[in-house]
């Protein structure tokens, strides 16, 4: 009753309202208390006997039951929300959202199963091979795209002890040493070590190493390697 009369402390009112949002039994009890409270208020104003005699209790009860309940600050929010989401329009909108999510899931699964290669070392599932620009090794100096795919022959496979990374040259020709790029595989990347002399396609991030004594184009880090036929 202090809650109905607005005399309940704010923290206790909030606690009660949280419970009411989850408890149908207490919500029903609250509605009955509200009806009785309004009836009591009507009786107090009219007195036990008005100018025309005793009040018509049946009429008062019908009037109270038919009137909309007086709510606290948040009482009834749960019921209003349920009424909103169960309207025909809301149900149709939810159905559209579900269908759209199912279509998106199907498209994603189809893309993953149609030859898209998972990229080890960089957010698996976010990128696949179609996100990489195919380039010849000799075209890298004019490239402005970050993710590229290029093919060549593996040379000089070695481990950089200082950086703890695997390095190898990728030459455009099996006979000529140039043009070439340097490819670098990070230490913890789940990528197989390429075989010397094998022909591979490398997917990764295109960079230019301008450090003194270097000055070469590279793929660093390598995100995926596909072995090709010679």
Can you tell me about this structure?
This protein has 230 residues and is of the alpha/beta class. The protein has five helices and six strands. The radius of gyration is 37 Å and the shape is elongated.
Please state how the strands of the largest beta sheet are arranged side by side.
2-3-4-6-5
Estimated structural class: alpha/beta
| Count of discrete domains | 2
List SSEs in N-to-C order. Answer: HHHHHEEEEEE
Total count of helical runs of at least 4 residues: 5
How would you sum up the major sheet? 5 strands, mixed, barrel
What percentage of amino acids are in beta strands? 15-25%
What is the secondary structure topology, with strand pairs?
Layout (H helix, E strand, L loop, with lengths): L9 H13 L1 H23 L10 H10 L10 H9 L2 H26 L19 E3 L11 E14 L4 E7 L8 E6 L13 E11 L6 E13 L2
Parallel strand pairs: 1-2, 4-6
Antiparallel strand pairs: 2-3, 2-5, 3-4, 5-6
Q: Which structural traits does this protein have?
A:
single chain; 230 residues; alpha/beta; OB fold (Dihydrolipoamide Acetyltransferase, E2P); 2 domains; five-stranded mixed barrel; elongated
Brief write-up:
Helices cover 35% and strands 23% of the residues.
